[in-house]
């Protein structure tokens, strides 16, 4: 068992291929690795390892995609006037905050999972937010994050040595062991060509709303948490010596290039 290292393994996770001995260890490994236990039907398989079983799996996957897309196109709620008014309201309120919020077509994963809302009484956004920690290959999804919450407070349950959850802290120990001054929060600049990916660095001491102003958001924000002392391939705008720091709304490209692979994952 790769979780407790005590008992003989009886199960193997279809998603990450980790061996487990019991239901308890299965649940622990899912929590520690943010694993859903569902086999990745779109995972790369080399030609040498490709079998008839993989071919059948791909065929069934494409059939499922077709059925799901057809069902989405026929769903009355998705195309109802109320849904369209809600999306229009969200985009309009975001525009009032100097945020260009774009929504994807029906069937895209980000469109389906987005839970962002706007509270008219409080005049406040409650964002659907994704945190990505590249150095640990970990990502977490947050729902209902108020727009006046600072990025420091948002990250405390994950990388703060004292306030973070013990399980999460263990997985993100590279971050929790590093000084807070080494932590950088980046957000991808949308509407750029795929061979020119750039990121904006955010101010951790400011609120989420202040950091999103002047940015283009596709459905919901995705924040990348990196460490200055560790190498990464993310180019921050204004630090590669070729482009000045500027807002992402000056860039132009087709929206279809933003979410590469989303159509294949529309089921």
UniProtKB/TrEMBL annotation:
Residues in HIT-type domain copies: 1-35
Region annotation Disordered: where it falls in the sequence: 238-267
GO BP, sorted A to Z: box C/D snoRNP assembly; maturation of LSU-rRNA from tricistronic rRNA transcript (SSU-rRNA, 5.8S rRNA, LSU-rRNA); snoRNA localization
GO cellular-component term (any): pre-snoRNP complex
Any one GO MF annotation of this record: zinc ion binding
Keywords: Isopeptide bond, Metal-binding, Phosphoprotein, Ribosome biogenesis, Ubl conjugation, Zinc, Zinc-finger
Pfam families: BCD1, zf-HIT
Entry-linked InterPro entries: BCD1, BCD1_alpha/beta, Znf_HIT
SUPFAM superfamilies: HIT/MYND zinc finger-like (SSF144232)
The keyword Phosphoprotein belongs to this UniProt entry's keyword annotation: yes
Segments of skewed composition (Low complexity): 242-258
Xref: PROSITE patterns: ZF_HIT
Family designation: Belongs to the BCD1 family.
Function, as annotated: Required for box C/D snoRNAs accumulation involved in snoRNA processing, snoRNA transport to the nucleolus and ribosome biogenesis.
Subunit structure: Interacts with FBL, SNU13, NOP58, NUFIP1, RUVBL1, RUVBL2 and TAF9. Interacts (via HIT-type zinc finger) with the RUVBL1/RUVBL2 complex in the presence of ADP.
Cited PANTHER family: BOX C_D SNORNA PROTEIN 1 (PTHR13483:SF3), BOX C_D SNORNA PROTEIN 1-RELATED (PTHR13483)
Protein name: Box C/D snoRNA protein 1
Organism: Sinosuthora webbiana
The encoding gene: Znhit6
């Amino acid at each position: 068992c790769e979780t407790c290292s005590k008992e003989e393994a009886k199960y193997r996770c279809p998603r990450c291929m980790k061996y487990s001995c019991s239901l308890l260890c299965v649940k622990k490994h899912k929590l520690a690795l943010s694993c859903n236990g569902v086999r990745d039907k779109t995972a790369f398989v080399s030609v040498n390892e490709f079998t008839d079983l993989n071919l059948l799996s791909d065929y069934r996957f494409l059939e499922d995609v077709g059925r799901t897309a057809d069902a989405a196109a026929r769903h009355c709620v998705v195309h109802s006037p109320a849904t369209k008014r809600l999306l229009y309201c969200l985009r309009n309120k975001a525009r009032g905050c100097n945020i260009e919020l774009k929504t994807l077509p029906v069937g895209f994963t980000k469109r389906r999972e987005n839970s962002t809302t706007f509270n008219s009484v409080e005049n406040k956004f409650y964002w659907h937010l994704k945190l990505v920690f590249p150095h640990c290959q970990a990502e977490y999804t947050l729902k209902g994050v108020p727009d006046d919450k600072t990025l420091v407070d948002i990250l405390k349950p994950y990388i703060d040595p004292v306030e973070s959850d013990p399980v999460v802290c263990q997985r993100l120990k590279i971050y929790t062991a590093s000084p807070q001054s080494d932590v950088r929060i980046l957000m991808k600049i949308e509407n750029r060509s795929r061979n020119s990916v750039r990121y904006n660095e955010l101010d951790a001491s400011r609120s989420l709303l202040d950091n999103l102003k002047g940015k283009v958001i596709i459905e919901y924000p995705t924040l990348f948490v990196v460490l200055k002392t560790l190498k990464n391939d993310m180019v921050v705008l204004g630090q590669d010596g070729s482009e000045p720091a500027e807002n992402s709304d000056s860039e132009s490209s087709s929206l279809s290039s933003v979410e590469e692979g989303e159509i294949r994952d529309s089921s």
